[in-house]
Design goal:
3-stranded antiparallel sheet; 5 helices; alpha+beta; 89 residues; Arc Repressor Mutant, subunit A; 60% helix
């Protein structure tokens, strides 16, 4: 969800730009997650034939259609954080 949020906020981004926004994620885990999101058709990966190669990631239309739901879930989590996190019953 965080990668989708970052792409929604930042638009088309390179791998290093996404990695900079994420705290405590390994390069391997980010790469694996991006591949999975691409397989799920939530993001696109565009490779430009340059030296060195430039690769950019962006949300697909399907990914964009998911964002209102992610943002709603995030808003709910923030609103109810104390109720959920403080509950020990």
């Amino acid at each position: 969800m965080l990668i989708l949020y970052i792409l929604d906020k930042g638009g088309t981004l390179r791998f290093s730009e996404i990695q900079r926004e994420m705290v405590d994620i390994s390069q391997k885990m980010l790469s694996t997650t991006l591949k999975r999101l691409e397989e799920d058709r939530l993001i696109t990966r565009t490779v430009y034939p340059e030296v060195p190669p430039r690769v950019e990631y962006a949300l697909t239309e399907v990914g964009k259609s998911l964002m209102p739901h992610i943002l709603g879930l995030t808003a709910w989590a923030v609103e109810h954080f104390d109720d959920v996190a403080g509950s020990n019953s």
